[in-house]
Specification:
single chain; 0% strand; globular
């Protein structure tokens, strides 16, 4: 599935397309999750979708897809791990996941959201380690809400450049995300300052 197909699906199926595109991301759809989430933001900025239902369905798609990984790891255990290890490029991410879990415990779930491939591998490892679903949900759903909100908001500002921005984030992960955080913060500070000057100007008048 490419970006044009994603837009076509959203035009035909609306909010449900956002949910299923992210839910199926767990099996490796060839479009970054970041692009899908930002596309939701773009379409709300254009008035094609309403912000609240678009964000809710996007968020539910994110946490549902990753929770599926947790359930598979919890139920099938080593058989899932063995299948992942057959893919050579996954060995690095599996080792990285185990290192993060050993070092940061449950907070590794929060960290994993900001690394595209790690985000999908971590739930398997957490499920394999038999973490309770209640604890998994506490950390994963909270981090997922923040992650979804960040990219959804960014999408409202990047417009037609959503695909390029999403691909950059996918390649550079956390480093580029800090830049997006800073730029978003600067934008809101400038906007707030500008509004305060307008209010003060009206008060003086």
């Amino acid at each position: 599935m490419n970006y044009d197909m994603l837009l076509s699906l959203i035009q035909h199926f609306g909010y449900a397309a956002l949910f299923f595109a992210l839910w199926l991301g767990i099996i490796g759809l060839p479009i970054p999750d970041e692009v899908i989430v930002m596309t939701g933001g773009v379409l709300t900025a254009n008035g094609l979708l309403h912000s609240f239902p678009a964000f809710v369905l996007t968020y539910l798609g994110v946490i549902s897809g990753l929770s599926l990984g947790y359930v598979l790891g919890r139920i099938f255990g080593t058989s899932v791990l063995d299948r992942l290890q057959r893919r050579k490029r996954m060995n690095h991410w599996l080792d990285f996941s185990k290192t993060l879990v050993h070092k940061y415990g449950s907070f590794a779930l929060c960290i994993s959201y900001f690394f595209p491939i790690l985000r999908h591998v971590m739930p398997y490892v957490i499920g394999l380690n038999k973490m309770t679903f209640r604890r998994y949900a506490l950390f994963s759903f909270t981090a997922g809400f923040v992650w979804t909100a960040v990219f959804f908001i960014v999408g409202r500002f990047v417009g037609d450049h959503v695909q390029q921005v999403g691909e950059l984030v996918y390649r550079h992960g956390l480093r580029l995300l800090w830049i997006l955080f800073v730029l978003t913060a600067v934008f809101f500070i400038i906007r707030y300052t500008s509004n305060q000057h307008k209010i003060q100007g009206r008060d003086k008048a």
